[in-house]
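During the reporting period the student researcher (J.K.) took over the structure-prediction task from the postdoctoral fellow and processed the backlog of single-chain submissions. One of the processed entries is reproduced below for the supervisory committee.
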Amino acid sequence: MTTKPVLDLVVLDCPDPLALARFYGEVLGWEVAEGEDPGWVDLVPPGGGVSPENRDGRVSLSFQRIEDWVAPTWPGGEHPQQFHLDLSVPSIEDAEPAVLAAGASVHNHQPSESGSFRVYLDPAGHPFCLVRG
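J.K. obtained the following structure tokens:
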């Protein structure tokens, strides 16, 4: 019998794991779980844990310190993004003020002609999108 893997954890590289975990914790309403290693911080979704406790298939976020961190450039550039997060919201306009208050900034490049998503940068410079769900 073959067991398929279950996506458990997405890890974002950054210069300050605690600061970035606090940002996404505020945006998503998730709990920051500081551990013994200051170079690694977990973000716990409501009612869930991070690996190995997270056995029901919900994905968690973690953040790890990279000493020579360079923020991604997008679109294109010397350090292109490797991936980004899409956060579904009923209304981008209603969700945007809280995301900005948490520390995000609106990216100057907005490729959606229909307005179905808007691109932001988190405090470490990772692009992410609010997507009309």
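The committee noted the following: Residues 9-65 form a domain with the Signal recognition particle alu RNA binding heterodimer, srp9/1 fold (CATH 3.30.720).
J.K. will present the remaining backlog at the next meeting.
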